[in-house]
Each structure stands twice: as C-alpha cells, then as structure tokens.
C-alpha cells in the first residue's frame, strides 16, 4: 500500500473532526475522499500531508511511518483549491520552484519543466504569469508544479472547487487521463459525487469524521452501506418505505404486481431526461424516464399511473429515527 492510515483521531478544541479513521490507498491508484462539508475530508488529507498532526493513530507512506515527519520529508505533492501560485513568477518558474530549492542542475530543471508543461498542455504559456491564465490553466500549472519533484503521493484538496461547472468537467476528464499517464498515487478531496464517480478508482465516503464506506464507484453506488451513502451518492426517491434510484422505477398505465397507484403532479423535461413528479398517498416521489415512456403513456399532471421498482433495482429500507 502507498498510504496506510490507522485509527486516526483528530480534534480541534472540543470538536472531534476525525473519529478512529482507518483507510488504505493502493499504490498507483486514484482515490477520492468524498463527503459533505465538515465531514473530515480535508483534515484527513492534511494529516496525510503532515500539515496536521493526529491526536492518536498512525500514517504510513510507502512503508515508512510518517506520523510525525514534517511535510517536506514525506515526499508528497499538495495542490490547494486556490492554486497558491507565485504571482511574480512565470509559469515556467512556478513549476521549476521545487526543483530550484532542491538545487537540481539547471539542465535537469529545464528538461523536467519543459516535459511537464507539455504534459499539462501549457508549453505555449511558459513565459506568462499566473494572472494571465484562466482558472483551469492555473490549476494545471499547480498540478505540474506538484509533479515536478516526483512525489510518491499527490494530494489534491478540492482542486476544481473554485472553477465553474463546465471547466470542472473538462479538468476532471483531463485529470483522469493525466493520472493514467504518470501513475502517481493520488488522493483528492471532493464533495461532488459525479466527480468522484467519474474520476476515482476507489471512493472513501466520509461523514461526521467517520469512514462510512470504501469501494469502487460501482460498488458504492450500487451497493450503498446505508441510507446516508445512498442519498449522498446520487438521486433517490422513496417508494413503499424503501429508497430507490429514480431511474430504477417503472411506470405503467394499469395495475402491476408489486406496483402502487400514484398521481402524476408534474412532468419536467431536462434535456434527454424527463423527471416525472408523483404523489403516492401523501408521499412525494419522482421517477426519471425517457421521452419514449412519456409519449407511450401520454404522461400529464393529474393522471393515475402504477409504479414499482424495476427488476434491476436494489431498494434500501429507509432507516427509522
């Protein structure tokens, strides 16, 4: 394992932020720490980086106990949400900074930085300053700077959080491709479920300072450990006392085995998807269907339909208070 976190606890004052957290990060993997704000994601990342010291527990990086090592001795690269760029330095000098302070030969620095700028598609921006770059370009520069010193582990704290939605989508696709090229063990923090599912090999779901579930994106999405994970990892609706994914609900015009009657209250077209809002007794629910279903059933407000989970659905019982 590249990273082994064992029984880590961390409090700030009387607030417990990490509660007996243990995770393993495989060498060469891309792991997402996913969860709501205040769940402990960034604190765990900072403990791995050495920017925070755990109250109890251990952190092992590449087989060596790093629990009390300072950040500069852990051989990790860290990328913050807001880039932390040196404004008075060019893109080239920003990327070269870590190599310069390590007194690497100038020819080696020039070669390494040139290669990295090509890797992150910024070779034509080497002489520009951070203020002359877009947000996405500045984040790519920050990633190149972190990779310059050839870290054993790359840590990213909500790297795309300050960017608009379209740029986020472009950069997360780019990050996955970059990782597949460089194969450096990477851990990134995000509260964006879609981002974690699209990019990561493994997802660690954190909430209230505890690990709720660890698994592949498919495992965590299709086999959530509890209602919290199911709700957090994608859209859900409630049907007959169970949580169901809206795309796993079948609608029919007449009674069906296992179905319940529902009243259509609203039909909302969202591009290629259509959201059908329903009322089942006094319980609100909704289904995600195709245009074909809407046309075949002539769905409209006030209509009575019959709904049930599809055969592929994995309903999860709603927890009682």
UniProtKB/TrEMBL annotation:
The UniProt record lists the keyword ATP-binding: yes
Keyword Cell membrane assigned: yes
Pfam family, any one: TOBE_3
Classification via InterPro entries: AAA+_ATPase (IPR003593), ABC_SmlMolc_Importer (IPR050093), ABC_transporter-like_ATP-bd (IPR003439), ABC_transporter-like_CS (IPR017871), Mo/tungstate-bd_C_term_dom (IPR008995), P-loop_NTPase (IPR027417), Sulph_transpt1 (IPR005666), TOBE-like (IPR024765)
Keyword tags: ATP-binding, Cell membrane, Membrane, Nucleotide-binding, Sulfate transport, Translocase, Transport
Domain ABC transporter: 3-233
Domain of life: Bacteria
Name the record gives this protein: TOBE-like domain-containing protein
């Amino acid at each position: 394992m590249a990273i082994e976190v064992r029984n880590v606890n961390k409090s700030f004052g009387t607030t417990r932020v990490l509660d007996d957290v243990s995770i393993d990060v495989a060498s060469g993997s891309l792991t997402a720490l996913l969860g709501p704000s205040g769940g402990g994601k960034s604190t765990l990342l900072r403990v791995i980086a050495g920017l925070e010291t755990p109250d109890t527990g251990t952190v092992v990086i590449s087989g060596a106990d790093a629990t009390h090592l300072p950040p500069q001795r852990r051989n990790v690269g860290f990328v913050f949400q807001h880039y932390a760029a040196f404004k008075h330095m060019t893109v080239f000098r920003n990327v070269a900074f870590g190599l310069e302070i390590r007194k690497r030969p100038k020819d080696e620095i020039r070669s390494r930085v040139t290669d990295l700028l090509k890797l992150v598609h910024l070779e034509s921006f080497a002489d520009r300053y951070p203020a002359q770059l877009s947000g996405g370009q500045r984040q790519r520069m920050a990633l190149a700077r972190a990779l310059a010193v050839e870290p054993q582990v790359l840590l990213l704290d909500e790297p795309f959080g300050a960017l608009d939605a379209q740029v986020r989508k472009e950069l997360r696709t780019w990050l996955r491709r970059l990782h597949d090229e460089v194969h450096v063990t990477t851990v990134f923090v995000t509260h964006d479920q879609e981002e974690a599912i699209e990019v990561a090999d493994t997802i660690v779901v954190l909430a209230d300072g505890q690990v709720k579930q660890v698994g592949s994106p498919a495992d965590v999405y299709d086999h959530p450990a509890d209602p919290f994970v199911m709700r957090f990892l994608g859209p859900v609706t409630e049907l007959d006392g169970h949580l169901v994914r809206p795309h796993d609900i079948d609608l029919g015009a007449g009674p069906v085995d296992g179905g319940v009657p529902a009243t259509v209250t609203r039909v909302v077209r969202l591009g290629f998807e259509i959201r059908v809002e329903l009322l089942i007794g006094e319980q609100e629910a909704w289904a995600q269907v195709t245009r074909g279903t809407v046309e075949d059933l002539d769905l409209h407000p006030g209509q009575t339909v019959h709904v049930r989970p599809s055969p592929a659905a994995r309903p999860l019982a709603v927890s009682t208070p």
